[in-house]
Amino acid sequence: MSVCIPVYRGEEFLAETIRSVLDQTYRDFELVILDNASPDESGRIARSFGDRRIRVETNATTLPQPENWREVMRLCRAPLIKLVCADDLLHPRCLEYQVGPMEADPGIAVVAARRHMIDERSRVLVPRRGLTGLTGMRSSVEVARHVVRSGANPIGEPGGVLFRREHYFAVGGWRPDHRFVMDLDLWIRLLQQGEFLGLPETLAAFRIGRESLSADNEATIYAEQKAYIEELAATPHLQVRKSDLALGRMRVPLGRMRRRTLFRMSRRAARRDARLEQVAA
């Protein structure tokens, strides 16, 4: 299988992310790291690991983030793929738990797991997030209705999800025009190819940073999330009901409030750490 890490200005957390991938109990994978012409030490850090499973590629010029994600997928060679953002983490048994079901059942298109939300020191802010009501085997209709009702992304970010390379290209891959719901949009389209399996285990960690892409674009994320549930509701084969959409419209603002709370928690933790460091100095 292929694990891929697209990275731009990722020097602060990249080494920890790479170690979390290399420490997997499942060992048979390639790790593709695509340096998006970073002006920092990201490329040097990626090349500092003496593990033959790692392949580091570098873009000639910096691509927009969606295009960089599309490019790293093109570089992957294995039938199963997981994309891990350059500041997120994997549990040591993540690949073990996710690869097994995919290899055993070709009818599964997506395997997802819960994730912790962590701060800049990798401390858990919110544990075991996601997949409420979505564990076990689910159809595309069940998943789409649940997504619309939630008004958010109950499946989660790429680090917690495994999918098939052939399916990714069959459905057209990441869509740049859905930048801030690009992951959720892909999960739904992949379910045109097979079933969804939600695992109850917590197998990844998503970092909430003060200067993360999510923190800087919170208002845009909110607008795209609202538009996306309307798009799903208007897709005939997903069979979203009017009651699902009505509930989702009410819950979208709640998702925005949860994101804002996470950003505030991360910022408070960072300020507290800075004060403690000043006292220690």
TrEMBL record:
Any GO molecular function: glycosyltransferase activity
Gene3D superfamilies: Spore Coat Polysaccharide Biosynthesis Protein SpsA, Chain A
Keywords on record: Glycosyltransferase, Transferase
Start and end residues of each Glycosyltransferase 2-like domain: 2-136
Matches recorded under SUPFAM superfamilies: Nucleotide-diphospho-sugar transferases
Superkingdom to which the source organism belongs: Bacteria
Record flagged with keyword Transferase: yes
EC number(s) recorded for this UniProt protein: 2.4.-.-
PANTHER family: GLYCOSYLTRANSFERASE, UDP-GLCNAC:BETAGAL BETA-1,3-N-ACETYLGLUCOSAMINYLTRANSFERASE-LIKE PROTEIN 1
Protein name: Glycosyltransferase
Originating organism: Pseudonocardia charpentierae
Lineage: Bacteria, Bacillati, Actinomycetota, Actinomycetes, Pseudonocardiales
